[in-house]
Amino acid sequence: MSTRFPFPLLDSPSALASCQGWTEEVYRDLLAFQTGALSQAALDAKYLQRKAILALDLTGFTVDCMHRPPAHSFLRILDAQKICVPALQEHRATLIRAFADDLVALFDEPAPALEAAFEIHRRVAAFNASDLAREHPAECCIGIGYGDVYAIGANLAMGDEMNRAAKLGEEVARGTETLVTDHLREALRHRLEYRFEPLQQDRMPFPYFRAAPAASI
Questions:
Q1: Sign (positive or negative) of CA dihedral 40, 45, 99, 105
Q2: Structural contact between residues 140 and 58, judged by C-beta atoms closer than 8 angstroms
Q3: Can you spell out the DSSP letters for 87-146?
Q4: Bridge pairing between strands 208-213 and 194-198
């Protein structure tokens, strides 16, 4: 026997949108989908898109914030954006979004996303070896996924491959590593210029691989 929920539920698209999670239109469509007024097929036709998703995190930011004034930590983020954003743009990222010490970029195809990751690592290494380097240089941890995601939210990419890319970039990858999902590896496994090394899954509930240019292995 079910029990009636005793609390109010917010079902106003405009009020929900004021939280800045999704747009009012997205809330309206999801509420319609929830009630059966909008079909799964209609929702997919409107929002589903196939993208490669690159999720980047910086090493050392948390420790830097603990031991240095906040403004100095912000400079670490600034340097990373100055280095990484041009590389993402040159490889035709369709969206680039920064949040704290993270960057998310979308690509129409998987190969440019992977090439952008390799180029970012090269440029960060060159920066750290130059006279611009900071006392404790940062490195980038990158995760990349590829597949169908919903063009909603701040990153215009919500779904399984977005979640996997973020997990790999923020939680699993170490500095200078590029980790990719099985879907991205499958899309590029015929490309001889790349190598994909399977890694232990540890606590991750999905397979993933370390990617590198073939010439570097």
A1: positive
A2: yes
A3: HHHHTT-SEEEEETTEEEEEESSHHHHHHHHHHHHHHHHHHHTSTT--SS---EEEEEEE
A4: antiparallel
Averaged over 37-55, what is the pLDDT? 98
| Beta bridge partner(s), residue 178 | 142
User: What amino acid occupies position 114?
Assistant: L
Statement: residue 130 has pLDDT above 60: yes
- The CATH superfamily assigned to 47-180 is Nucleotide cyclase, GGDEF domain (3.30.70.1230)
Output b/e per residue, 45-64; b: 16+ Cβ within 10 A.
Answer: eebeeebbbbbbbbbbbeeb
Measured CA to CA, the distance from residue 55 to residue 33 in angstroms comes to 29
In the chain, what are the domain boundaries? 47-180
pTM attached to this predicted model = 0.93
Please give the single-letter amino acid code of residue 4. R
